[in-house]
Amino acid sequence: MPVNEMRRAEQETLLADVFIVLGSSLVVYPAAGFPELAKRNGASLVIVNREPTPLDRAADLVLHRSIGDTMGAMVGVE
After folding, report:
1. Angle of helix 33-40 versus helix 3-15 axis, rounded to 10
2. Of residues 64, 60, 44, the one with CA closest to residue 52
């Protein structure tokens, strides 16, 4: 993973009030560690993924749905 991009992702994660995970199994690190970091830092965690993930129990909201349908409904696009 590119060092500068990972550093930026960590900085943004620490600033987040809400951290939304879209379509990730959350098993590939180091990127899978960002939702955990956000949650530990006080952010609400939302996971949208068709299948369960290891972080579902820690999330504030879990939607086992497709990303397209879910995000499309949020912004009024079908």
Report:
1. 30
2. 64
Residue 46 bridge partners (DSSP): 20, 61
CA distance 47 to 27: 13
DSSP-assigned states of every residue in 7-71:
HHHHHHHHH-SEEEEES--S-STTTTHHHHHHHHTT-EEEEE-SS--TTGGG-SEEE-S-HHHHH
Q: What is the pLDDT of residues 8-18, one digit of tens each?
A: 999 999 999 99
List, for residues 19-68, the tens digit of each pLDDT value: 999 998 999 999 899 999 999 999 999 999 999 999 999 999 999 999 99
Confidence band of 74 (pLDDT split at 50, 70, 90): confident
